[in-house]
Amino acid sequence: MGGRTNKQIRERYCNHLDPSINKSRWSLEEDIRLIQLFLTHGTQWTFFTKEFKQYNRPEIQIKNRFNCFVRKIFDLDQCKEDGRMFLRSHVSKEMFRRFYNDQGLQEKISSLVFEA
């Protein structure tokens, strides 16, 4: 393959071409685990990869799924809180905790029906 570095080739294989990667829809169990890990560990994607090894999900899939949640929950690109605008990159564990505080985690995630 011309024009690609060894790192790019490796990342493409590990994140997209590896036959062991789970490319099916995310289950409710996986979604709940993703949010629970975020609430306890923040955005440590490499740690998430170890936790999601049983589901055969690569780091990029986990990060993309989380970003889908953020867009869905916090109104695409921005949300208003205390009169300030927050961009997706500034979503904190506290914002998620407040969002999930009033209902159980499973009901909230079940209500966010969308494809990622």
Give structural notes.
With about 120 residues, the chain is mainly alpha-helical. It has one domain (about 25-110). The protein contains 6 helices and 2 strands, in the order ααααββαα. Strands 1-2 form a two-stranded antiparallel sheet. Helix 2 (about 30-40) packs across helix 5 (about 95-100), helix 2 (about 30-40) crosses helix 6 and helix 3 (about 45-50) crosses helix 4 (about 60-75). The radius of gyration is 16 Å and the shape is elongated. The two termini are about 30 Å apart. The model is unreliable at about 75-90 (pLDDT under 50).
- Widest beta sheet: strand line-up: 1-2
Low-confidence stretches: 76-89
Count up the helices: 6
- Helix/strand order: HHHHEEHH
Mean pLDDT: 76
> What class would the helix/strand composition place it in?
mainly alpha
Total discrete domains: 1
Alpha-carbon Rg, integer: 16 Å
> Tell me, what's the shape?
elongated
Helix content: 55-70%
Share in β-strands: 5-15%
How many distinct beta strands?
A: 2
Report the sheet with the most strands, covering strand number, pairing sense and barrel closure.
2 strands, antiparallel
**Gap between N and C termini, in Å?**
29 Å
Which labels suit this protein?
mainly alpha, two-stranded antiparallel ribbon, 6 helices
Short structural description:
This protein is mainly alpha-helical and 116 residues long.
Q: What is this structure's SSE topology?
A:
Elements: H1 6-17, H2 28-41, H3 45-51, H4 59-73, E1 78-81, E2 84-87, H5 93-101, H6 105-111
Antiparallel strand pairs: 1-2
Helix pairs in contact: 2-5, 2-6, 3-4
